[in-house]
């Protein structure tokens, strides 16, 4: 009988290591307990996954030594042909966990294809509760939580990016639908500037940065207010910080 594939949430950034329970406010203890008993994981990066398991071990001792836990890597550079191999231990009866680099697996994450294959092969898939930067951003934005769409990354080319932003703004206006997306952290400031200068003055723009982390910052303003703040050098510090951008046009 096949095992279960658990979808294990990760932190959204570095956890405080000086805390007796560093994950207590982010990952439920029941989720930590499931994670601690597993001996096989599929992860984007083995090194950072080991660091995450060390934090789990602080509150819920691992069932086996860390060096005995097998971690197979699955990331954007992985060959899709290797997916069946990654599920083999689970098909043979072992429970396994899928872990993203940050947040929940299979959402804006290469693990989605593995989950699809697990379903095709009759493996039970069990999602576990944890932080999703995307849903947290929608919750805190004040924009529509009834109708929203995630758009991944926008084009890097400036002209294509402006065109895409205008398309999303029109869609937001026509469908009353919050549009949100992410950016490579070192391009966050450029993204906000483009949004402020491209969108209509009354379009609402939310910038949600470092969610669940000590320096968390969430601000929703009109495009005209963002433009004025940036001109006065009063914009938020977004440099190399995980950020979600949201917009809703009236």
Task: Give an overview in words.
- By secondary structure, the protein is of the alpha/beta class.
- The chain has 2 domains: 4-127, 3-Layer(aba) Sandwich (Cobalt-precorrin-4 Transmethylase, domain 1); 133-248, 2-Layer Sandwich (Methyltransferase, Cobalt-precorrin-4 Transmethylase, Domain 2).
- The protein has helices at residues 29-37, 46-59, 83-91, 112-120, 133-141, 158-175, 188-198, 223-231; strands at 4-8, 40-43, 70-73, 96-99, 124-127, 148-153, 178-182, 204-209, 217-222, 243-248.
- The longest helix is centred in the middle third of the chain and has 18 residues, at 158-175.
- The chain is globular and about 60 Å long.
- The relative contact order is 0.15.
Supply database-style keywords:
250 residues, Methyltransferase, Cobalt-precorrin-4 Transmethylase, Domain 2, 2 domains, 10 strands, alpha/beta, Cobalt-precorrin-4 Transmethylase, domain 1, single chain
Short description, anyone?
The protein is of the alpha/beta class and 250 residues long. It has eight helices and ten strands.
List the helices and strands and how they pair.
Blueprint: E1 4-8, H1 29-37, E2 40-43, H2 46-59, E3 70-73, H3 83-91, E4 96-99, H4 112-120, E5 124-127, H5 133-141, E6 148-153, H6 158-175, E7 178-182, H7 188-198, E8 204-209, E9 217-222, H8 223-231, E10 243-248
Helix pairs in contact: 1-2, 3-4, 7-8
- Physical arrangement of strands within the biggest beta sheet: 3-2-4-1-5
CATH homologous superfamily annotation of the largest domain: Tetrapyrrole methylase, N-terminal domain
Beta-strand portion reads 15-25%
N-to-C span: 54 Å
Bulk shape:
globular
Task: Extract low-pLDDT stretches.
Answer: none
């Amino acid at each position: 009988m096949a095992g279960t594939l658990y979808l294990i949430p990760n932190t959204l950034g570095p956890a405080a290591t000086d805390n007796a329970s560093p994950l207590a406010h982010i990952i439920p203890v029941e989720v930590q307990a499931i994670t601690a008993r597993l001996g096989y994981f599929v992860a984007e990066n083995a090194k950072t996954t080991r660091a995450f398991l060390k934090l789990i071990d602080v509150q819920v001792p691992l069932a086996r030594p860390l060096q005995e836990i097998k971690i197979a890597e699955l990331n954007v550079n992985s060959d899709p042909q290797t997916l069946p191999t990654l599920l083999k231990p689970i098909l043979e009866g072992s429970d396994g966990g899928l872990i993203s680099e940050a947040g929940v697996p299979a959402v804006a994450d290469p693990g989605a294809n593995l989950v699809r294959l697990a379903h095709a092969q009759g493996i039970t898939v069990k999602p576990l509760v944890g932080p999703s930067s995307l849903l947290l951003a929608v919750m805190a934005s004040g924009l529509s939580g009834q109708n929203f769409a995630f758009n991944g990354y926008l084009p890097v080319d400036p002209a294509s990016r402006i065109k895409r932003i205008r398309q999303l703004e029109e869609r937001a206006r026509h469908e009353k639908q919050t549009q949100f997306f992410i950016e490579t952290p070192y391009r966050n400031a450029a993204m906000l500037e483009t949004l402020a200068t491209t969108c209509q003055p009354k379009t609402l723009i939310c910038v949600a940065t470092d969610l669940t982390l000590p320096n968390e910052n969430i601000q929703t303003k009109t495009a005209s207010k963002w433009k004025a703040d940036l001109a006065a050098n009063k914009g938020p510090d977004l440099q190399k910080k995980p950020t979600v951008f949201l917009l809703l046009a009236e």
